[in-house]
Design a protein that fits this description.
mainly alpha; globular; unfolded protein binding; lipid degradation; lipid metabolism; chaperone; cell membrane
Length: 245
């Protein structure tokens, strides 16, 4: 499920926070439908502690994120944001490193990536990302800059196939598009890193889709079912909050 949100500079961008547009009245989300398939990100392999594209050729923009942690690269369990929690976009947050000096990957990292891309204006991604890495050790700083550049290329690849004019026609289409987006993310970032970055948002979206499936109101539009799903989801979260304390 690919969604679009307005950028602070008047444009549109593909957002990682699926739940934000999953609840909009404009068709719940803008979905990956029609057009040519997104070119799959080349698979990466670890060779002697470095990451190289399978086959030896350099991929677009340089080396690729490994399928799983690179030796010396920590995929942190981190502190995932509570499901559905919105993190303010401004000011831009900071990337974080673990005790070994490696970049932490979690939901907060994804929010920082989104912020870096949204507020970079006309600057190169690496320059904008560097400002959010100033307090990091050298290794984590390099990893964060590489990740930000990769995230920018990932967003660009989605824009090439997103059709803003086309909306989902069924809940089944929404579920299929979520699966397609999950596969894209795994190709670009590796299964482990994609799970750490996007897993919380994807879980919220999957739950909303499930709630929409359970809505059996006759003749209800997707927008109406989405609004009721959001209300049910919010009630679930409110009921779970006291138990979590």
């Amino acid at each position: 499920m690919i969604i679009m949100t307005a950028s602070p500079h008047g444009g549109r961008r593909v957002a990682g926070g699926l739940v934000l547009a999953a609840l909009t009245v404009a068709g719940v989300a803008l979905l990956l439908r029609g057009g040519e398939p997104t070119p799959a990100a080349p698979q990466a392999v670890v060779q002697g502690g470095t990451v190289a594209q399978a086959g030896g050729a350099a991929g677009p923009g340089g080396t690729l994120w490994p399928q799983g942690p690179e030796p010396g690269f920590t995929v942190s369990a981190g502190r995932p944001a509570p499901a559905g929690e919105a993190t303010p976009l401004e000011p831009v947050g900071r990337f974080r490193a673990d005790a070994q000096g490696a970049l932490v990957l979690d939901t907060d990292t994804l929010r920082t990536l989104e912020q870096v891309l949204a507020f970079r204006r006309d600057r190169p991604v690496a320059e904008a990302a560097r400002e959010a890495t100033s307090a990091l050790p050298e290794r984590a700083q390099a990893q964060a800059i590489e990740l930000a550049e990769r995230y920018g290329r990932y967003e660009q690849s989605l824009r090439q196939v997103v059709s803003p004019e086309r909306a989902p026609q069924s809940v089944d289409e929404m579920a299929a598009d979520l699966q397609a987006l999950q596969a894209q993310r795994q190709q670009w970032f590796g299964e482990a890193a994609a799970r750490q970055l996007f897993g919380a948002d994807e879980a919220v979206t999957a739950r909303l889709i499930q709630l929409m499936r359970e809505d059996t109101a006759p003749a209800a539009s997707l927008e109406e079912r989405a609004m009721r799903a959001q209300a049910r989801y919010s009630a679930e979260q409110a009921a779970a909050a006291p138990a979590a304390r």
